Amino acid sequence: METDDLLSAALEIRILTAVTAKRAMHALRRRLNLADKGLTGLQYGIMQALHHEEQTISELSHKLMLDPSTLVPAVDALERKELARRGRDPQDRRRVPLSLTERGAEFVTCVPALDDDDPLVQSLNAMGEEKAGQLLALLREMVENMPEGKDIMRRVSLMMDAHAARESTSTE
Predict the structure, then answer these.
(1) Would the pTM of this model clear 0.90, i.e. be above it?
(2) pLDDT in tens, the chain (172 residues)
(3) How many CB atoms lie within 10 A of CB 57?
(4) What angle do CA 75, 162, 113 make, to 5 degrees?
């Protein structure tokens, strides 16, 4: 592929992934608004990450690939809404683990990250299983080839494992 064609393809991929991400966030906001808790997508993502294990801001930052300064106000808001709490580590006073409250855990269980009405789910369904699988494989390959891509894919794999664990416990 010529350099101009490659740059054009990269720009179009950037635009298309931004549109996809925007539509996915809109669908999540719709589900969160229906639940009437006034949560942001970031706050919900933090709650998802805390659902099965407590974590520090630093651990969340690494897992969610976000700067700690972005997470602190969101965690503060979750604490004010009594959906999450900061704890104490008896072995290390400097470590402040975060966990969900009972209300927070209930909320995460009741509000799915995705549902059948989600435009991403509908689009993948319309593409069919084979094409959806090919798209996923190509996206994984693209991310792996980025700087730090293998590390990013390891973190994505951990997030997917955590999601699968949540799904298996919620269906039992």
Answers:
(1) no
(2) 788 889 999 999 999 999 999 998 899 888 888 887 789 989 999 998 898 789 999 999 988 889 999 999 999 999 999 999 999 888 888 888 999 999 999 998 888 888 888 899 999 999 999 999 999 999 999 999 999 999 989 888 887 887 777 667 666 5
(3) 19
(4) 65
Q: Would you identify the CATH topology of the domain 3-170?
A: Arc Repressor Mutant, subunit A (1.10.10)
3-state per-residue secondary structure call for the chain: CCHHHHHHHHHHHHHHHHHHHHHHHHHHHHHHHHHCCCCCHHHHHHHHHHCCCCECHHHHHHHHCCCHHHHHHHHHHHHHCCCEEECCCCCCCCCCCEEECHHHHHHHHHCCCCCCCCHHHHHHHHHCHHHHHHHHHHHHHHHHCCCCHHHHHHHHHHHHHHHHHHHHHHCC
Name the one residue in this structure whose structure tokens are 């010529």: 2
At 23, the amino acid letter reads R
Show the CA angle centred on residue 59, arms to residues 54 and 63, nearest 5°.
105
